[in-house]
Amino acid sequence: MTGFPALSTQRLHLREIVASDAEALFKIYSDVDAMRWFGSEPMTDPVQARQLIDIYAEWRRAPAPGTRWGIVVRETGQLIGTAGLFRWNKSWRNCVLGYELGRAAWGYGYMTEALQAILDYGFVSMALHRIQAEIHPDNLASKQLVERLGFRMEGTHRQQGYWGGQYHDLQCYALLEGELRHHVGKP
Question: Which domain range does residue 49 map to?
């Protein structure tokens, strides 16, 4: 892959996640409540945030590449979350969507805005036909978000995730090329 594909929306700048983002990432990823559906244990040490930044950078070079964008509010320059496309199967023209947002940014429509740009990028620039999201059945906000964007629930992957000392079912949602719904402003 070539240079990092920065994206812009009305209120947001989606850019590469860099070392100076470690403190903001740690604040998001160490929030137990915010991370309960993410699929991994909350961070307990700031070093973990720096390691995650390296992992996201490596995705761009991996055999099944992916891209993780830092979501930054244009007005303040503050990193409020991340979102990305990963496990890209080029021959099948599909990948998986993942995202999280810091608690202070909830309820403002930021993730809807960010995901619209990312999904557009996936369908146009990556030539994807299908984008999948795997969501915990109890994560109502995330399910509502993807449904507003046009994703459809296809079924449940039984005990697909493991965190918090237990297995978790994940519901599979998918969006096909041409099904993306665009929203303006707060949903």
Answer: 7-127
8-state DSSP, 141: H
What is the three-class DSSP state of 81? strand
* pTM for this predicted structure: 0.92
| Sequence-distant (≥ 6) Cβ neighbours of residue 3 within 8 angstroms | none
Q: Please indicate, yes or no, if residue 155 is contained in any of the structural domains.
A: no
The contacts of residue 128 (CB under 8 Å, 6+ apart) are 85, 88, 93, 94, 95, 122, 177
Show the CA angle centred on residue 150, arms to residues 128 and 158, nearest 5°: 80
Geometric angle at alpha carbon 137, from 71 and 87, rounded to 5°: 50
The total number of structural domains in the chain stands at: 1
Q: How far is the C-alpha of 145 from the C-alpha of 100, rounded, in Å?
A: 12
Contact assessment for residue 87 and residue 104, using Cβ atoms and an 8 Å cutoff: no
User: 27-49: per-residue pLDDT in tens?
Assistant: 999 998 888 888 788 999 999 99
Number of Cβ atoms within 10 Å of the Cβ of 178: 8
pLDDT at 1: 46
In a domain, 73, yes or no: yes
Residue 149 lies in a domain: no
Query: Could you give the 3-state DSSP secondary structure of residue 173?
Result: strand
Rounded Cα distance between 162 and 177, Å, is 30
